[in-house]
User: What shape does this take?
Amino acid sequence: MVTQPPLVLVCDDESHIVHVVSLKLRNAGYEVITAPDGAEALELVKRRLPDLIVTDYQMPYVSGVELCAALREDEATADVPAIMLTARGFRLDPAELHRARIIDVVSKPFSPREVLLKVQAIVPVSGGRQAEAPSPDQSPEAA
Amino acid sequence: MSQPAVQLASPPEATLSPEVFRRAEALGVTLLRLRDGGEARALTASGRVVEAIVASSLFSGALRREWSSLTAAPGTVRELWPGVRVASLRPGPGRLAVHPPVPKKLYAVLLLGPELTESEQFHGVCGEAGLDRGAAAAEAQGDSTVSAGEAHRLALTLSWMCEDDGNLHRRGGELQGLSLELADTYEELSLLYKLASSLRVKASPETVLRDACEELHQVIGFRWLALSLVNDPRLNDVSGQTICLHVGDFDPDEMDAAADALMQRYPDLHSPMIVDRAGEIALPGVESLGQNFLIIPMRLDDGVLGVMFGADRLDGDLISSVDAKLCESLAGSLTIYLENHMLYDDAHSMFLGTLHALTAAIDAKDSYTHGHSERVALLARMLAEQVGLGHQVCERVYLSGLVHDVGKIGVPEAVLCKPGRLTADEFGLIKLHPQIGANIIRDIRQMEDLVPGVLYHHEKYDGGGYPTGRAAEEIPLFGRLIGLADAFDAMSSDRTYRKAMKLEDVLAEVTRCAGTQFDPELAAAFVQMDFAPFDRLIRKHERMRRAA
Assistant: This one.
C-alpha cells in the first residue's frame, strides 16, 4: 500500500488563521482540508476522516469544544485527536477539555512553528495514513 | 520576511489553468496552442474534422496572415474562412506595457460555424487529410457548431474567464505570500509575548538569556546567533559570558574573541548594523564565522552592556531590516531586564552588607562572641536545609540568625562582658535582649518575618525559657532552629566563663537536652550534620580575632 500524507482538518472562522496554519502544515508535508465553522467541519469529517483536527474555540454555530464533543458521539470519528486554538487568557474548563478529548490547547497569538511541532508529535508525516481505506478502524489511536 | 528573488528575465509564461480546460470541454469548444510560424495543436479532445482543420496547410497559412490581428486583441473573433473562427485567449491579467512585443505563441479557441461544410476550403481540408467529404460533413454538423454572433459571445466570455482565472491565480499567490508573512509575524509576536512573560527579576539571568536567544534563533533562522555581555559583578553568573546558538560546529573561544573584538571595534554603536561582507568589519578571524552579519549593540546610559550578533540566514537571503528590527526589540527588552537585575542585585547586596555590618557591630561589643552571629546564621541555615525546608525559607532563616542578637545593643557592655557569675538583676538585663531585638527590626518591612527567630531564640522546648515561656510547637520554627544553633555555637566557642567544649561533647549535650531544651526532631537532625563548613568559619573568625 502507498502511504499518503496525514490529513489535517483546520477549522477557524478567521480565514487568516486558517491560511497561516494550513500553509505551515502543507509546507511540512501534510494534506490539509479547511472549514470556516464547526458545523461545516462536522459535515466535512463525514466525507473524509482526518488524522487530526486543529480547531478554534470561539466560532459561530458550533464552538470548537462542541465540535469535538460531537465527534466523540459518532463511533467513526470518536478517536480523531484534536488540538484547540484559543484567545490568550481565555479560561477553559479542564474537565470539559478532557470530555471532548482535546489533547492540547494553544493560545493566540500562537507560534505557527509550535503548532506544527505539536501536530508532528501527534501525527508524524512519515507515519501517515495508509492509502484510501476510509473505515473507522483505520484511524490512528487517540493519544 | 524573505523576499522572492527579483527576476529581470522575461516572466515565466502564463498557462491556462485546468479549470479553463474543463470549462472549454463542457462548452464543446476546442482550445488551441498556436505559433507565429503557423503551427497549431488542439489541446482539448476533438473529433477527426477538427484535427484535420487544425493540421491543414490552409489553416497554417491563414494563421500566418492573421497573426498580428489575432495577437492584438484577445477575445476578438477572426474568421479564417467561412465557418472557421479563431479568437486568442490570454491567460493571466492584462499587463500594461507601452510597446508590447508581438507574442510568438498563443492560446486560442476554435469555433466552428454551420456554414463550414458548404465552403470550398472544407473540400481542400478533407482532401489533404484523406477524409471522405460526406462523412466529414455529417461529423462536423454533429459537432457543436455555433453561429457568428454566438461565436463572438463565447470567445469574449472565454477570454474574460481566462483573465479572471489568471487574476485568481495571482491573488492566490499573493495570499500565500501574505500568509507566509503573517506566519512570521505571529512567530515574532509569540516570541515577544513569551519573552515579556519570562522576564521576571527572580529567574536566573542565564536561563532567561539562553531561553530568549534559543527562541529568537529558531524564529529568525540565522546560522548562528550570539549574545555577549561585558564583565560586571552585578551580572553575577552571566558576567563576561557569551551565549551562542548555532547550526553546525563553532568554536566557543572564537565566538568569545569575536564578541570582545566587536564591542571594542564599535564602542559607540547605538543602533543595529547590517554588514553584507565580513571583510567590511576588518577584524581578524571574523570571516571564518560568516559573511553577512547583524550586530545589535546593548547599551546602558553609562556605556556598553553587551552585544547581540548573528550571521548568515539559513535560507540564503540577505539579512534584512525586518530581522534587525526583531533582534533589536528583543535585545532592548533583555537590556532592560538586565538593568533591572543589576539594580536588584545592588539593592540586595546593600541590604546584606548592612545586616552584616550591624551584626559585626554587636559582636564587636564582646570580643569573645566575635563572629557568633554569622556562625549561628550558618548553623541555622544548615539545619533548615537538613530538615528539608525550601530554599527561600532557608535564606530567611540565615538572615534571622544573623540578626538574632541585635537586641544586645540595648544591654550595657559591663553586663555583656562581665567575667564570672551574673547577679539576678544583671541576668534580668540580659534576658531583655530578644524583646529589644524584636522591637528594633519589627518595623522594617523587609525583616518582619525574621522577628520570630529574634524574639524566641531563648525559649526552651519544655517551656522553661524566656521571654514568654512558650513550649514545644508553640515556639515558632525560626525560634527553635536559631535557639539550637545559638546554644551549639556558645558551647563550641570560648566564653568569658569557660573554654570551648569538644564537638563530640557538644553533640552529646544536644542529644541529652533533646525534648527539654531543644525540639527533639531538630536535635536528631542536627547531630547528623556535617560540621566542616562551621569549622572553617570558626577558624576564619579566630584568624581575624588574632589579627585584630
